[in-house]
Design brief:
Layout lengths: L1 E5 H11 L14 E7 L2 E7 L3 E8 L1 E4 L1 E6 H10 L4 E5 L6 E6 L2 E8 L15 E5 H9 L16 E7 L2 E7 L3 E7 L7 E6 H12 L6 E6 L3 E6 L2 E6 L18 E6 H15 L6 E7 L2 E8 L3 E8 L1 E4 L2 E6 H8 L6 E6 L6 E5 L2 E8 L5
Antiparallel strand pairs: 1-5, 1-7, 2-3, 2-6, 3-4, 4-17, 6-9, 7-8, 8-9, 10-15, 11-12, 11-14, 12-13, 13-26, 15-16, 16-17, 18-22, 18-24, 19-20, 19-23, 20-21, 24-25, 25-26
Helix pairs in contact: 1-2, 3-4, 5-6
Length: 368
């Protein structure tokens, strides 16, 4: 095998594919990245069996072939190469891969390519397609709300719920819930849970496309594959039953607040500096007839207060949240105006964007 390619193309591909290199491999081959030079491109693969990623980049291929080398070592040495173009060759030694660029040279020991678990899209008639921008938007508005504690796997994933002409993604850690929905064509009614790790891994691929394109999704009872542009991503699905999320979303409102997104973001960001010093990272909202007072108190650091104007309908109240739950949601908001619907000091609160029923966020208050 012998080929050359642009360094920046390779670095970008390694960043993406590297997400699927096993951190604690069951066998050495899973610590490697598979390289296959064919035609006018080179294909890179990594597969830890829970997640697999394939990326293709342009290359000048003199001799076709395949090889597997350590993923970490390959990424580290490629970054350090001095020239814009890098050449790879194992024509002289089948047990090592020579990498050259400018005046730099390195030989990496290889593993047997035939032992690598190669990635292919699922062959199933259960499939749908979705635009890359829509999928990116749905993931961005939900995946942040998953649980990080892996003791309850269902809550570390995002529910995909498909209905005729409609797709909904839902994520929760039992203390907060993010719901986002949109419209697609030709979807069969089904649901499955995708690991948030998988969805976070594909976001850079979706967001780097210059034109909006379609992602082709194939799924079975246990696995999922996404194919688009020069990428293939395979993932195991999470087994289990997702809780009935519709029962969590409040249907009634005792106090409705409408306010400017930019002012609210600025106030939360300001008070969060103190809330991070407080117990439970608590931030307090005091709803007044014409606005909200946002504050945080710390026995060790002091206090911070910011008042903003708002349109308020209903009774005033005092309520507290983990400030991260508010800041995380705000980072996904694009609308200029937002709504907050309260039902009491300890009842779940619904956050929405103005004139957008397709995105709902629910946060549970904390006792202070």
């Amino acid at each position: 095998m012998k080929f050359s390619c642009y360094k920046n193309d390779l670095i970008d591909a390694l960043k993406l594919v590297g997400k699927a290199v096993a951190a604690k491999p069951q066998t050495p081959i899973l610590s490697g990245i598979y390289l296959n030079a064919q035609g006018n491109q080179v294909e890179l693969q990594a597969n830890n069996f829970s997640l697999g990623i394939t990326a293709k980049i342009p290359a000048h291929v003199e001799t076709e072939g395949e090889v597997v080398v350590s993923g970490k070592r390959l990424a580290d040495f490629v970054k350090g190469m001095p020239d814009d173009t890098i050449t790879f060759s194992n024509e002289d030694n089948q047990n090592s891969l020579a990498i050259t660029s400018g005046g730099a040279n390195v030989d990496l020991l290889t593993m047997h390519a035939e032992d690598f678990p190669k990635i292919k899209p699922l062959e199933t008639d259960r499939s749908f397609q979705i635009s890359s921008s829509m999928l990116s938007n749905l993931i961005g508005k939900t995946a942040f709300a998953v649980a990080e504690d892996e003791s309850r796997p269902v809550f570390t994933g995002v529910l995909f719920e498909l209905r005729p002409n409609k797709i909904t993604l839902v994520a929760t850690n039992t203390h907060r819930l993010a719901f986002a929905t949109d419209y697609i064509d030709n979807a069969n009614e089904t649901s499955f849970i995708v690991p948030a790790e998988t969805l976070r891994s594909i976001l850079p691929m979706l967001n780097t496309e210059s034109d909006n394109k379609f992602v082709f999704v194939n799924y079975s009872s246990r696995n999922l594959s996404l194919t688009f542009d020069n990428f293939i991503v395979t993932s195991r699905l999470i087994e289990g039953v997702f809780p009935p999320y519709d029962k969590v979303i409040p249907e009634e409102t005792a106090t409705h607040v409408q306010l400017d997104t930019a002012e609210f973001k600025q106030a939360v960001k300001f008070v969060a500096l103190m809330a991070k010093e407080a117990e439970y990272n608590a931030v307090k909202f005091v709803v007044l007839p014409n606005g909200i007072v946002i504050s945080a108190d710390s026995q060790d650091a002091g206090s911070a207060v910011k008042e903003i104007e708002a349109q308020v309908e209903g009774n005033g109240l005092n309520i507290s949240f983990n400030v991260a739950y508010i800041a995380d949601w705000l980072s996904t908001v694009e609308a200029k105006i937002i709504n907050i619907d309260f039902n009491g000091q300890l009842e779940p609160v619904k956050f929405t964007e103005l004139d957008n029923k397709n995105f709902i966020y629910v946060a549970t208050p904390i006792r202070t």
